Amino acid sequence: MSQSVAESNQAVASQLSNNLSRLLREFSRDFERRICDGLAARGHPAIRPSHSAVFSNLGTGAVRVTELARRAQVTQQAMGKMLKELERMGYVARDIDGSDKRAKEIRLTQRGIDLATASLAVVDEVRAYYADKIGPGLFNSLEGELREAVRKLHLDYLPDTWVDSD
């Protein structure tokens, strides 16, 4: 028996909305929202999920805008705009690159370091929330499997702080 148009449309809609990409995106959005809520409660209410493109790619020490943009997979213009905003809020500073006076290096300010420290505590709280909701075994397995999958992809734009055991 053939499907009606409505049944066919429903099947297509289901496949489009229930796929790995969507699942990862929804989990990520929820995770980032919980992080931002926790940071707001700790005195950082202006931090948004989009700011993670900077903080998760900074690594340790100073880094050039071009490298940050490459790691975050955004244009230099988009990264520059975000950096100006974070600089205005006091989280990062731009300094002249010692090896190339035309380039700028980005580093965390003390406020940025305070944010990073607060972030670590919030991440622990969010991880505990997920472990409680879905079970620690499933949560740890999910994280471990995703980490292994990303590692096997050999993504060359990840910061040096990404640990690859190969």
Q: Calculate the terminal CA-CA distance, rounded to whole Å.
A: 52 Å
Question: Could you state the order of secondary-structure elements as H and E?
Answer: HHHEHHEEHH
Mean pLDDT: 88
Quantity of strands, as a count: 3
Low-confidence stretches: none
Compute the number of helices: 7
Order of strands, widest sheet: 1-3-2
Coarse shape: globular
Taking all Cα atoms into account, the compactness measure Rg is 20 Å
CATH architecture: Orthogonal Bundle
How many discrete structural domains? 1
Provide the structure class: mainly alpha
Looking at CATH, the homologous superfamily is Winged helix-like DNA-binding domain superfamily/Winged helix DNA-binding domain
Largest sheet: 3 strands, antiparallel
CATH class: Mainly Alpha
Q: Report the β-strand fraction as a percent range.
A: 5-15%
Percent helix range: 55-70%
- CATH topology description: Arc Repressor Mutant, subunit A
Structural notes for this entry:
- This protein is mainly α.
- It has one domain (19-153): Winged helix-like DNA-binding domain superfamily/Winged helix DNA-binding domain (Arc Repressor Mutant, subunit A, Orthogonal Bundle).
- The chain contains seven helices and three strands; from the N terminus they run αααβααββαα.
- It has helices at residues 5-17, 20-41, 52-58, 65-72, 76-88, 110-134, 136-153, and strands spanning 63-64, 92-97, 100-108.
- Strands 1-3-2 form a three-stranded antiparallel beta sheet.
- A hairpin with a 2-residue loop joins strand 2 and strand 3 (100-108).
- Helix 4 packs across helix 5.
- The protein is globular and about 70 Å long.
- The N and C termini lie far apart (52 Å).
- The mean pLDDT is 88.
